[in-house]
Amino acid sequence: MEALMEIMNYTSLFLNGSSDFLERNFSFWNSTGVGLESQEHSPYYGEYLTIFRNSYGSIHGYLSFNVCMFGITANILNIIVLTRKNMVSPTNAILTGLAVADMLVMFSYLPFTFHNYIRNDLSEKEKFSYAWAVFTLFHAHFTVVNHTISIWLTVTVAIWRFMAVSFPASSANLCSMPRAKTAIMATYSACTIFCIPVYITFTVSEFRGTDGEVMYRVDFSEIAQRHDKLLEKINFWLFSVITKLVPCVALTALSLGLIRVLYETNLRRQRLKNRVDTDRSHDRTTRMLLAVLLLFLLTEFPAGLLALLSGILGTDFFNNVYLNFGETMDALALINSAINFIIYCSMSRQFRDTFSYLFLPKCCKAQEMKPIAEPSRTVATACV
Q1: Is pTM, for the whole model, over 0.85?
Q2: Residue 366 gets which letter from DSSP?
Q3: What confidence score (pLDDT) does residue 274 get?
Q4: SS3 of 214, please?
Q5: 60 with 327: CB under 8 angstroms?
């Protein structure tokens, strides 16, 4: 338990729920990395991972800034396209809610990465001003809430699609637009409430800089320190482990179920050569959503696994492995939030057609887009 308490002294609730956010705020920013010094014969090859971290840290700010710029633009385009009249469907409504959450994460991360990684001309006092500390606290809470919303909306999409393909007879009722709107609002509300422990765990505190001036940083609150740092421990397991691993396990099971359904559908198609186009469009939709789910697993599962190992193996693993991959996992989470637009364009003909009709009119035929099928005929259609 002592090892877990030491872990919590460095644990934050940033994009990945447990990156080295607080450690960055406790340390002065420099170009060679933060907080951890390379030591010979460190456990878990920590000296080599520190070299990797320092090397990647020199480009993290520029990479993250560009990913955020692209991701904000891409998600705005997602929202515009998915809310067009011909694209309206229950699944697309959930994908729109997902795009909004991802966009908000990157809106917050943009000034954060610019201030802390790209601007090298700031004095110590400017870096740790009271206004910046307040923004950092807001940023920590805001990104945790919206990233948690993004995670659970991804799970919702998977559940939605699994019900549509597994229970086609009753999917018109199960996957209706009112239910989709309810699911979106419930996810936004529940995640905001679920993150209450985060709000009361951190606060802005004063500290003395190298020249003795009063400066400000994000620190653990007094409430978080009570009862043998119980709130810190709860936050670690809730946001570093549970909110990562539980969705990943659920998405793995749902993805395998969708793959099984696709396989069985392909076998039936081989026996029935006259399958209707609607069934093929269902398959394209399922494949596209599978790509979204698998991308999520590739970017989120490593963070949850490393957090779980940190809780089990203790401080040495956390300091030598997890912290050295903190910025890399942040970058993966940002890429996951930004890349859905590419998936939609590459795998959805209707998304491409609608996008071209809206933004590339000279390259498109001068005709109105055909509306998608009614839910009673093509249930939970998405971007086909």
Answers
A1: no
A2: S
A3: 52
A4: strand
A5: yes
Q: In Å, how far from its chain's centre is CA 317?
A: 24
d(Cα 48, Cα 359) in Å, to the nearest integer? 48
- The distance of Cα 2 from the centroid of its chain, to the nearest Å, equals 30
Show Cβ contacts of residue 338 under 8 Å, excluding neighbours closer than 6 positions. 67, 68, 70, 71, 74, 75, 102, 106
Distance CA 213, CA 190 (A): 42
Terminal CA-CA length for the chain: 51
Predicted pLDDT at 143: 92
How far is Cα 108 from Cα 351, in angstroms, rounded to an integer?
27
Q: How far is CA 118 from the centre of its chain?
A: 23
Which are the contacts of 152, defined by CB distance < 8 A and separation ≥ 6?
A: 187, 190, 191, 247
3-state helix, strand, coil in the chain (%, to 5): 75, 5, 20
Question: CB-based burial of residue 180 (10 Å sphere; 0-12 exposed, 13-18 middle, 19+ buried)?
Answer: buried
Amino acid letter, residue 54: N
Token pair for residue 257? 């179920």
- Predicted pLDDT at 35: 40
Q: Which helix (H) or strand (E) holds 261?
A: helix 243-271
The identity of residue 92, as a single letter, is N
Phi, psi at residue 305, to the nearest 5°? -65, -45
Q: Which residues, at least 6 apart from 30, have a Cβ–Cβ distance to it below 8 Å?
A: none
Beta bridge partners of 174: none
Q: What is the mean pLDDT of each run of 10 residues along the chain (384 residues)?
A: 32 41 39 40 84 90 94 96 91 94 94 88 86 92 93 91 80 84 95 89 86 86 81 77 83 86 74 55 74 87 85 85 89 91 87 88 52 38 43
Question: Please, are residues 183 and 191 in contact by the beta-carbon 8 Å criterion?
Answer: no
153 Cβ partners below 8 Å, 6+ apart? Answer: 94, 97, 98, 101, 184, 187
**Chain Cα centroid distance, residue 308:** 18
State residue 348's pLDDT score: 84
Residue among 13, 314, 250, 247 nearest 146 (CA): 13
Q: How many CB atoms lie within 10 A of CB 44?
A: 17
CB 198 within 8 A of CB 239: yes
Structure tokens at 14: 């940033």
